[in-house]
Amino acid sequence: MNQSIKLLLLSSIGMLLVSGIATAQVDKNSEIYQTLKEKDSILFELGFNKCEVEKSAELMYDDLEFYHDKGGITNSKEEFISTMKNGVCSDNNTEKVYRFLVAESLEVFPMYNNGKLYGALQNGKHFFSTDKNMTYQKTDNYALFSHLWIIEENEWKLKRVISYNHTSKEKTEN
User: Fold this and answer.
1) Dihedral sign (CA 37, 54, 149, 157)
2) Parent domain of 42
3) End-to-end alpha-carbon separation of the chain, Å?
4) What pTM was computed for the model?
5) In degrees rounded to 5, what are phi and psi of residue 35?
6) What is the pLDDT of residues 138-160, one digit of tens each?
């Protein structure tokens, strides 16, 4: 399947969810929600913020696809990990960027095949700053994300990522 078709398929799923046609978001206290929230923390708190990239790599399929509205397409876990190690987690990176989840924005939509749970779509909003103590109220530097998680051998693994609507303007404090 070529990348245009994959992107169209993922966009269509997202549009269905946003339009209200498929509104099966799970409760924030549910096991699936809590599990994927924990996976988000491993991906970003450990992998992105603390640069323990190998820990987040364990959560990804080898054929991970990452679609970024500013940075283009990454076509594999290997490419993604290389980008992380040579970018935000590089020893040459003079200004570390941190990622923060807007907790109340996180949503999880389970996906079933003939009544059997096989995956979930996780949507949310996050923001980025060089200040590791930044709060959301001080920034407009946010983005939206959708993560497609698939269950493989009773483990949740990240299959597809869409990161979009990035802004870069930070508010000044008055």
Assistant:
1) negative
2) 36-164
3) 51
4) 0.80
5) -60, -45
6) 777 789 999 999 999 999 999 99
